[in-house]
Amino acid sequence: MTTWLREVGEHTKAHRAERARKLVSRRVEVSLALRRAGWGEAVVQEKAKSYDDRARGHRERIERVEACCTEVVTVSCQGCGVCREMSPGCRAWMLCVRCRGATAAELRSRFLAARAEVIRRAKERGLFRRLQRGGRWGERFITLTVPHGAATVLGRINTAFDAWPAFLKLLNRHFADIGVKSVEWLRVFEWTPGADGLGHPHFHLWMFSQYLEHDLLRDLWQRALSRVGCGDPAPIVHVEAVTDGQGAARELIKYMLKDITANGSKIPPVVFAQVFEALAQRRMRNASKGFMGLAKGAKPCCECGGTLPRRVRKQPRTALKEGRSP
Fold first, then answer.
1. What angle do helix axes 153-177 and 214-227 make, rounded to 10 degrees?
2. What pLDDT, in 10s, does the model give residues 240-293?
3. Are 245 and 112 in contact (CB under 8 A)?
4. 4 CB burial (10 A radius; 0-12, 13-18, 19+)
5. Where in 118-230 does DSSP place strands (E)?
6. Which of helix, strand or coil describes residue 90?
7. 182, 171, 265: which is closest to 221 by C-alpha?
8. pLDDT for residue 326
C-alpha cells in the first residue's frame, strides 16, 4: 500500500505543486488587497495563514496520508468525566481508505438526519395521501450512468460533470411545468474502475418528489448527455422506490471512489493519479437548497448532556503501546 501510494504521489506531484503555487499567488493578492483596504496586520496574517496551510497540504499530501492514525486524540468530558480515544485522521479521503470510510459514514449520518426531517414535514403537509393532485409523494433512488464514449479517464469524468447541470435544468423545468415548486434531493458522484480500466463514472441520486416515469428520466439524461457531445440514444438509468432509509443511505453513499478492481488488485497508480487530478476541485456531492442544513442542530458535547467544552489532548500512538498515561 505504501509503495502504491508513493507512486501515485510521484504521478500527481506536478499537479499538487501547481495547485500549491496558485494558492500562494492568491495569498499574495489577498494580503495586498487587505492592506490597501486598511485592515490590520493581524487580520492579514490570519488570512494569509489559511492559504499557506492549504498550499502546504497539497505539497505534503502523500506524507500526511502515510502518517494518518499515527496519533491518538484523547477527548474527555468535563461534565461526566468519560474519556475516549480517537484518531484525528488526515481527511484526505481520495487517497486514504480509512478517512474515505469515515467521510462516507459522516455523510450518511447527515443524510439520514435530513431525510427524517423531510419525511416528518411531508407527513404534516399530507404529501403521502394518494388522492391529491399529481399523486402521492415518495422517495426514489436514481442511478445515472455515463456511456464509455470517451477514451480517457478525464474525458469520462468531464462528461459526467458537464451533463449534470443540463440534466438538473431539464428536471427543474419539468417540475415547473407540472406546478411543483421544489423537491428535495441529494446527488453523489461515484467512480469505479469499469471493465476497460478507464473508469465507470455515475451519479447516485436520492429524490423526494411526486412519481417520475423511468422513460422521462432516461429521456432527460439522454438530452443532457447529447448537449455535452455524448450521443448515446439509450443511456442506462436505474430507478427504484426507497423502502428502507438505512439501505438507501448505504447505497447512495458507499465509497464514492473505488481504488481496487473486481479481482481485488489495486488500480494502476498512473490511472488513479488521473482520477485524482480529474476530480480536483469537483463537487463530489450536491443537494437541493437547504436539504443538508436540515441535519444541523444544537447538540450536547457528550451523551451525558453536558455543554461544557471537551478537553482534548494529542499524543503519538506509540506512547500508548509503551503504557504511558496521556
1. 130
2. 999 888 888 998 988 778 888 777 788 999 999 999 999 988 999 999 999 999
3. yes
4. middle
5. 137-145, 184-192, 200-210
6. coil
7. 171
8. 42
- Residue 315 corresponds to which cell in the numbers above? 499524543
Residue 326 and residue 324: Cα distance in Å, rounded? 7
Compute, in degrees rounded to 10, the torsion defined by CA atoms 163, 167, 169, 170.
140
* CA-CA-CA-CA torsion sign (158, 160, 166, 169): negative
Q: Give which of 199, 173, 201, 175 is closest to 188, Cα–Cα.
A: 201
β-strand 71-76 against 311-316: which pairing, if any? antiparallel
Which amino acid does the sequence have at 231?
G
CA angle 96, 61, 198 (to 5 degrees): 60
Sheet containing 83-86, strands listed edge to edge, beginning at the edge strand earlier in sequence:
83-86, 71-76, 311-316
Q: Does residue 78 carry a pLDDT above 70?
A: no
Q: Which residue has the cell 460533470?
A: 161
User: What separation, in Å, do the N-terminal and C-terminal C-alpha atoms of the chain show?
Assistant: 30
Residue 189 burial (CB count, 10 A):
21
Q: Is the pLDDT of residue 108 over 80?
A: yes
For residue 317, what pLDDT is reported? 54
Q: What is the pTM of this model?
A: 0.82
Is the predicted pLDDT of residue 323 greater than 60, yes or no? no
Quick one: average pLDDT of 60-77? 80
**To which residue does cell 503504557 refer?**
323
Task: Calculate ∠ Cα 94-100-103, nearest 5°.
Answer: 120
Q: How confident is the model at residue 297 (pLDDT cuts 50, 70, 90)?
A: low
- For cell 421544489, what's the residue? 182
Grid cell 467544552 in the structure block, residue:
309
Q: Are 96 and 65 in contact (CB under 8 A)?
A: yes
